Amino acid sequence: MTYEIPKEIKAKPKILGLEMRELVILLISSLLVLTILRDLVHSVFMIPYFVAVIGFMIYLFIPSGHNPKKRHYESLILFFRHKKAVYHAMDKHKQENRQLRVTEGG
What we know:
InterPro entries: DUF5592
Protein name: PrgI family protein
Keywords: Membrane, Transmembrane, Transmembrane helix
Distance between the termini: 51 Å
Pfam families: DUF5592
Number of helices: 4
């Protein structure tokens, strides 16, 4: 008797390729931008305003190229929430340090 082991145990429900949380964020932000802020836009610029807002909303939910497994809106959240006082040392001479460790025997 063989049992099939599911590959994804914690799969999240999706509608139109978006998780429920993302769909709610998209709907609320679209409602906010397209209705409340519409009064601030001159009637001549209404169509370009709608095109720009819809394009920006689509961009926010495309997967980020710099942060794997995250979308652009999540990258923006991480950017604004990071602590500026935290110092992270970067190894500028990675290859040289690796060679020194090999030659020293460590």
